[in-house]
């Protein structure tokens, strides 16, 4: 007999895979239910992904946007947290397989494993064009950006210097727009006077979007405002421009090439392996097609939520892969499980969209809430208040708010550390760092 990580107890066993927005909300929704919850994640922290780009651009440190899962749930006595890698699910035995540990049995399973970067069949591009989904991604991108300026200061060839000072962002969604604006602020303000051999203000920041306009989820007037604001900041916004190849020295386009020292991928996502684990039907992005109550068809005790799920709204439109969707799904499934145990029922899941928003840069953002459109400074204030509100814990809200206020007043970014020493070709301290 295989020993399991959670021997059966008197209470139903709820296993939740993934401690992102959806998994965490589902866990907390079960706080008062007569169940035992096992929450499994491959990291020990919950990350507030909407602000990862600020870690990547040195505005915030990782500890300001990520918190230990055990600390968040320390007062919820019916939760056991396991830091482990899930390798599969046995639906027949109702068991979750873990790498390097015994399996975990469940009565009800919630899969909330999120999504990762999609390179549209060209996974080899990931080495040269990192995406932004995890703390590790953010610190890697921060290193790329800061090393670009440091290496340009060392370069003696002008063409190589220009390449190192060229930053390409692939994808004109919220992440690409926010990253482009943040890099422009670094170059034009934060480090403008910190170097002697280069002028950081000459850096080229190029935002590439394959579609006809940036921010396709927002109305056209807000997208146009964002494009004009980025242009005023010195960002080269190119729409209807498709990338055909990425390598260590830049990107190839359908109509030419851009030599660049740093390429950042923000063009698409693909779901986790949840569909493969479950042997479930899925859409083109790998998201599991779920029923109206977010359960797996023919398996009413298995739920898939967040970016791993393919669901539609009341009008049949696919739900976007954003934090509010995952949070509402997690809260709904947690309440549904508790209701079932109490002999009650809940209506099918219905998503209530709180709005769309994206910051363009200093004192500029775009916001859509129902029929209301905000932009400019007012939009930026609303964006900031909304993000601070959803941070976990009063302490972190205060820290982030104070950091933003200080950055706004001083044009400084306090997390400008290159924390990983690049590999050297010779064992001498005088060797120049290799390109990112």
Describe this structure in words.
- The protein has about 425 residues and is of the alpha/beta class.
- Among the domains are: about 15-40 and about 85-115 and about 270-340, FAD/NAD(P)-binding domain; about 125-265, FAD/NAD(P)-binding domain.
- The protein contains eleven helices and 25 strands.
- It has helices spanning about 20-30, 50-55, 70, 135-155, 160-165, 175-190, 220-230, 275-280, 325-340, 375-390, 395-410; strands at about 15, 35-40, 45, 65-70, 80-85, 85-90, 95-100, 105, 110, 115, 165-170, 205-210, 235-240, 245, 250-255, 255-260, 260-265, 270, 290, 295, 300-305, 310, 355-360, 365-370, 370-375.
- The strands form eight sheets. The protein has a six-stranded mixed beta sheet, with helices on one face. The chain has a four-stranded parallel beta sheet with strand order 13-12-11-17. The chain has a three-stranded antiparallel beta sheet with strand order 6-7-8.
- A hairpin with a 4-residue loop joins β6 (about 85-90) and β7 (about 95-100).
- The longest helix is centred in the N-terminal third of the chain and has 20 residues, at about 135-155.
- The N and C termini lie far apart (about 50 Å).
- Residues about 425-435 have low confidence and may be disordered.
């Amino acid at each position: 007999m295989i020993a399991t990580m959670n021997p059966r107890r008197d209470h139903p066993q709820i296993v939740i895979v993934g401690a992102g927005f959806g998994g965490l909300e589902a866990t907390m929704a079960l706080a008062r239910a007569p169940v035992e919850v096992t929450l499994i994640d491959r990291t020990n922290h919950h990350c507030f992904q909407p602000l990862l780009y600020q870690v990547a651009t040195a505005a915030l440190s990782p500890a300001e946007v990520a918190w230990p899962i055990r600390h968040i749930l320390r007062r919820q006595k019916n939760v056991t947290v396991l830091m482990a890698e899930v390798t599969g699910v046995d639906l027949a035995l109702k068991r979750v397989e873990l790498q390097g540990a015994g399996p975990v049995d469940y009565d009800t399973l919630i899969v909330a494993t999120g999504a990762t970067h999609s390179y549209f069949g060209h996974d080899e591009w990931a080495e040269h064009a990192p995406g932004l989904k995890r703390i590790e991604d953010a610190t890697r991108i921060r290193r790329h950006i800061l090393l670009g300026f440091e290496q340009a200061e060392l370069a003696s060839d002008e063409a190589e210097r220009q390449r190192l000072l060229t930053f390409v962002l692939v994808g004109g969604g919220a992440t690409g727009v926010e990253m482009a604006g943040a890099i422009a602020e670094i170059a034009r303000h934060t480090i403008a006077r910190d170097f002697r051999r280069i002028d950081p203000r000459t850096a080229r920041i190029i935002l590439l979007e394959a579609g006809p306009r940036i921010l396709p989820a927002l109305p056209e007037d807000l997208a146009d405002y964002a494009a004009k604001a980025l242009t005023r900041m010195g960002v080269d916004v190119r729409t209807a421009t498709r990338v055909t190849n990425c390598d260590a020295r830049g990107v190839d386009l359908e109509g030419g090439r851009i030599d660049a020292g740093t390429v950042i991928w923000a063009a698409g996502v693909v779901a986790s392996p949840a569909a493969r684990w479950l042997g479930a039907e899925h859409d083109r992005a790998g998201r599991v097609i779920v029923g109206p109550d977010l359960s797996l068809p023919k398996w009413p005790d298995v739920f898939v939520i967040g970016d791993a799920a393919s669901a539609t709204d009341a009008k049949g439109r696919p739900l976007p892969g954003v934090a509010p969707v995952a949070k509402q799904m997690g809260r709904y499934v947690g309440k549904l499980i508790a209701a079932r145990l109490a002999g009650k029922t809940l209506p099918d899941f219905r998503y209530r969209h709180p709005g769309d928003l994206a910051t363009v840069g200093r004192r500029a953002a775009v916001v859509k809430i129902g029929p209301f459109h905000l932009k400019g400074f007012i939009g930026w204030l609303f964006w900031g208040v909304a993000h601070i509100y959803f941070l976990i814990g009063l302490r972190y809200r205060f820290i982030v708010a104070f950091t933003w206020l200080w950055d706004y007043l001083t044009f400084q970014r306090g997390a400008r550390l290159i924390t990983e020493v690049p590999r050297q070709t010779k064992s001498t301290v005088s060797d120049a760092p290799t390109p990112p």
